[in-house]
Amino acid sequence: MTGVAKAVAHSNIALAKYWGKADRARNLTAVPSLSLTLATLRTVTSVRFDSSLPDDEFSLAGALMGGRPLLRVSKLLDNVRAQRGFDTRARVESVNDFPTAAGLASSASGFAALAMAATRAAGLETTPEQVSALARAASASAARSVFGGYVALAARGEHAERVASGEDFPLQMLIAVTAVGPKGTASTDGMTHTQRTSPYYAAWVEAAPALYAEVRRAVETADFDALGPALEHSALAMHASMLAARPALIYFAPATLRVMECVRAFRGRGGRAYFTMDAGPHVKVLVELGAAAELELELGKLEGVTEVLRTGAGPDAYWVDP
Ligand code: 2P0
Question: Which residues pair with 172 in a beta bridge?
Answer without folding.
Answer: 287
